[in-house]
Amino acid sequence: MNSSKSPVLDGLGNTTCNAHKKISVFFSIIFMTVGILSNSLAIAILMKAYQRFRQKSKASFLLFASGLVVTDLFGHLINGTIAVFVYASDKDWIRFNQSNILCSVFGICMVFFGLCPLFLGSVMAVERCIGVTKPIFHSTKMTSKHVKMILTTVCLFAVFIALLPILSFRAYQIQASRTWCFYKTEHIEDWEDRFYLLLFSCLGLLALAVSFLCNAVTGITLLRVKFKSQQRQGRSHHFEMIIQLLAIMCVSCICWSPFLVTMANIGINEDRSMETCETILVVLRMATWNQILDPWVYILLRKAVLKTLYKIARRCCGMHIMNLHMWELSSIKNSLKVAAISESPVSSKQINQQPLSSTGQ
């Protein structure tokens, strides 16, 4: 680090992506602004809902969702500010990053705000799966204290993963586009450089796989309860919940999978060309869109909004899909009530005793 040329800056003159400065600054500012505004709106909606359902089973879901949206908000605020500063400084890292402090902070934030939302998404999927399949266990064990402990553990684990290169004296590297910092993705020297890329990719893909599996189990369980139950009041929640699960799952997989697969490919093949450099910028922006679209899933796919969309679709299509009185009861309370009734041994005994009482009469 005391030499005339820092090792972190070695590759800046060799390989760069051809990115127009004005367009790049414009995209960075737009992404950051839209992300901050959408996440701020989602936080306000979730906090208002949390005040209504503080003592109910929906509170744990709202706490996890609030943690996810707050993480996305700070991710846009911190990473977006650094990115805009880099573009505004004409990407002259040699001038403002002599001690590699800014690149290290940028790299840590990229890893933390990349993995933490994925971890929180998988934890939310597990929580929803337990809440639907085991509602009694969920209502007794999943308290707000436990939720806050889980949120803290997830954040600390993401911080640990982000600090691993610093703890092992491996600096984060300025990427070929000279616009962001991450693990070393070119001129990979040993197994440790490859290990960080594969660790990040595997953890991200594992989180997506857990989310997919738990959401699938939740959706199947809700459908089974819907078709088995004779009560029409639970259908609104089934309809709403399945749409939310599909939206969250699709957004996460579409936005994050290309970036995670690209990083894993680089870690395995140790090869990157000019075309791959441009591809990394595209998949990185796709991953950024996940933090923009996440809050809109909670903003748009609510019961009131779905009722409006249903009315519009019914007017346009002229089809009788379902009656609007199915939307009357609270969705989360409805689902847990139906699931609890279907699993409760007391209800099954009452059902079995009904024919006996009728024959005795």
From TrEMBL:
Please name the source species: Chelydra serpentina (Snapping turtle)
**Which residues constitute the signal peptide according to the record?**
none
Where is each G-protein coupled receptors family 1 profile domain found?
Answer: 38-298
The membrane topology of this protein is: Multi-pass membrane protein
- The identity of this protein, by name, is Prostaglandin F2-alpha receptor
Any Pfam family: 7tm_1
**Principal location class:** membrane
Provide the GO biological process annotations.
adenylate cyclase-activating G protein-coupled receptor signaling pathway; inflammatory response; positive regulation of cytosolic calcium ion concentration; response to lipid
Report the locations given in the UniProt record. Answer: Cell membrane
MF terms in GO: prostaglandin F receptor activity
Q: Which UniProt keywords apply?
A: Cell membrane, Disulfide bond, G-protein coupled receptor, Glycoprotein, Membrane, Receptor, Transducer, Transmembrane, Transmembrane helix
Q: Which SUPFAM superfamilies match?
A: Family A G protein-coupled receptor-like (SSF81321)
Task: State which residue ranges cross the membrane.
Answer: 23-47, 59-87, 99-126, 147-167, 195-223, 243-268
Organism's domain of life? Eukaryota
Q: Which GO terms describe its cellular component?
A: plasma membrane
